[in-house]
Amino acid sequence: MARETILSKTPEAKEDDPTLRPSRMSEMVGQRDVIARLQIAIDAARQRDEVLGHVLFDGPPGLGKTTFATCIPAELGVHVDFLSGPSLKAPKDLVPSLTNLRAKQVLFIDEIHRIPKAVEEYMYTAMEDFRIDMILGEGINARTHNFKLRPFTLIGATTRAGMLTGPLRDRFQIRERLDFYSLEELAQIVTRNANKLKIEIAQEAAIEIAARSRSTPRVANNRLRWVRDFAQSRAAGKITLDVARDALSMAEIDGLGLDRQDRKYLDTLIRVCMGGPTGIETLAATMNSVTDTLADEVEPFLLRSELILRTPRGRVATPKAFAHLDFDPPQTNEGATLFD
Ligand code: ADP
Fold first, then answer.
1. Using an 8 Å Cβ cutoff, are 294 and 238 in contact?
2. CA of 68 to the centre of ligand 1 (A)
3. Atom in ligand 1 nearest the alpha carbon of residue 11
4. What is the model's pLDDT at position 332?
5. Residue 111 near residue 120, CB atoms below 8 Å
6. Ligand 1 center–CA 120 separation, angstroms
């Protein structure tokens, strides 16, 4: 595959509005401990005039892995290339990026858990000794050539660190897990980004948007963009608390941040399946959905919000889910609730 098709030019492919992404670590909100540790490693590397050790970021989508991969090279004053794990199908897909490295630059691989074993093994010597083997020529003239690379920093991002093999994980000197953001941090992100989008926002409105954003900056940005459109189209271009509430309820995002699909899942589990335990296949079939979508896109937030439990016998709705959807808790034969 040609270099151009593998190298994504910017990390904005998954984002509509690149203006919102912080470009320096000082602009990032939250993740203070991670930032403090990285700053020490960056300072030390700069003082020794050495390349920064390889860094692995792990955490759910939208928490800032790509943002760190954008800010770290800016702090180091080096170039960065962005690669996506699924596009690296064979070692040869990695060769152009490695042989064209600039001094001390950063190479970012998103979804690094999705690279095939052969590519992973090819990366071992690149990461450890800054060398790769290349086969030059064809047929009986083929020769293996050991190619010396310019020292570089690999930044890997994964939503599933558990899927990385031990040998790959161990080659990262710095490993950081990103956590969800507090309400205050998200509200700060919303306020700052409203400024960047040049729209006036009331403090209570920023808190309201943050509260419905699943503790995730990417979700907060998406909600903010919608509320901004709504405010400009329907409300004289200012985001007040009422405007934020009206916009979010029109988008069917409720006070806990659940969307229509989340509520449909809970409604199916509670009303149709009497609260469970119910297998995910049954839920998917009843909802006319597929199990992967439910498991990857719907359940993680419902589990984190303590609205469902995943038990060996199937999914169970918690009392909080019954209350949220305005259902009475289920009764047992004796008249006690299932949770008494
Ligand atoms: P990931 O790579 O983990 O999926 P991103 O780094 O792409 O997530 O983050 C999604 C968006 O959320 C970014 O474009 C940025 O606008 C915002 N964001 C993420 N982390 C922060 C942060 N710490 N401070 C401010 N905004 C952030």
1. no
2. 8
3. 7
4. 59
5. no
6. 26
Residue ID of nearest Cα to ligand 1 atom 21: 64
In a domain, 232, yes or no: yes
Residue 213 and residue 195 share a domain = yes
> Any idea which residue has 């960056």 for tokens?
42
Single-letter amino acid, residue 12: E
Where does the chain show beta strands of DSSP type E? Answer: 7-8, 55-58, 80-84, 106-110, 131-136, 143-148, 153-158, 174-177, 200-201, 238-239, 308-311, 314-317
In the prediction, which pLDDT does 339 show? 54
Nearest atom in ligand 1 to the alpha carbon of residue 189 is 25
Instruction: Look up residue 133 and give its two tokens.
Output: 């083997």
Whole-number Å distance between alpha carbons of 6 and 89? 10
pLDDT digits (tens, 9 = 90+) for 85-105: 999 999 989 999 999 999 899
Are 41 and 173 contained in the same domain? Answer: yes
Q: Could you read off the pLDDT of 290-299 as tens digits, one per residue?
A: 999 999 899 9
Over the stretch 214-266, which tens digit does the pLDDT of each residue have? Answer: 999 999 999 999 999 999 999 888 999 999 999 999 999 999 999 999 999 99
Residue 338: strand, helix, or coil: coil
**Tally of domains in the chain:** 3
205 contact partners, CB below 8 Å, separation of at least 6: 227, 239, 240, 241, 243, 244
Q: What is the DSSP string of 211-242?
A: HTTTT-HHHHHHHHHHHHHHHHHHSTTEE-HH
Q: Is 218 a catalytic residue?
A: yes
Q: Which residue in 68, 100, 78, 135 sits closest to 4, CA to CA?
A: 100
The pocket around ligand 1, CB under 6 angstroms, is made up of 15, 20-22, 28-31, 61-67, 157, 189, 217-218, 221
- Our mutation pick for probing the ligand 1 site, out of 17, 20, 21, counting the most ligand atoms within 8 A of Cβ, is 21
Question: Is 66 designated active site?
Answer: yes
Report the nearest atom of ligand 1 relative to the CA of 69.
6
- In terms of residues, how long is the chain? 340
Containing domain of residue 274, as a range? 260-324
Is the same domain home to 265 and 313?
A: yes
